[in-house]
Amino acid sequence: MIERINRIKVVLAEKQKTNKWLASELGINPSTVSKWCTNSSQPDIALLVKIAKLLDVELDELLNKEFVESI
Q1: Is the pLDDT of residue 1 over 70?
Q2: What is the pLDDT of residue 2?
Q3: pLDDT band at 12 (very low <50, low <70, confident <90, very high)
Q4: Contact 18, 12 (CB under 8 A)
Q5: CA-wise closest residue to 43 among 17, 70, 16, 25
Q6: What is the set of domains in the chain, with CATH numbers?
Q7: Interatomic CA distance for residues 3 and 5, integer angstroms
Q8: What does the pLDDT read at residue 64?
Q9: Tell me, what's the pLDDT at 4?
Q10: Do residues 65 and 3 make contact, with C-beta atoms less than 8 angstroms apart?
Q11: What is the structure's pLDDT at 69?
Q12: What is the pLDDT of residues 39-66, one digit of tens each?
């Protein structure tokens, strides 16, 4: 089973952004973003689309390729 579904933490680092910045932009609790970054929970597809837009990346860049290939 693939545990790392999203790459939000990696993309945030690449874009030199923080969890707190993303939480503020989305109007959500920073602990929620922290859970996404550790892959202990996942954002829904609508939030993934918003995150991709905020980070100026394609949606698939936020997903672990191994996870995508497994579905």
Answers
A1: no
A2: 53
A3: very high
A4: yes
A5: 25
A6: 8-70 (1.10.260.40)
A7: 6
A8: 83
A9: 80
A10: no
A11: 67
A12: 999 999 999 999 999 999 999 999 987 7
| Local structure of 34: helix, strand or coil | helix
β-bridge partners, 6: 63
Asked if 21 and 27 touch (Cβ cutoff 8 Å), the reply is no
| 3-class DSSP assignment, residue 57 | coil
What is the distance between the alpha carbons of residues 45 and 51, in angstroms, rounded to a whole number? 10
For residue 23, give the amino acid letter: A
User: Taking a C-beta distance cutoff of 8 angstroms, is the pair 5, 67 a contact?
Assistant: yes
The helix/strand/coil state of 14 is helix
How many CB atoms within 10 Å of residue 61?
14
**Distance (Å) of CA 54 to CA 2, 17, 59:** 26, 10, 11
Tokens of 60: 């698939």
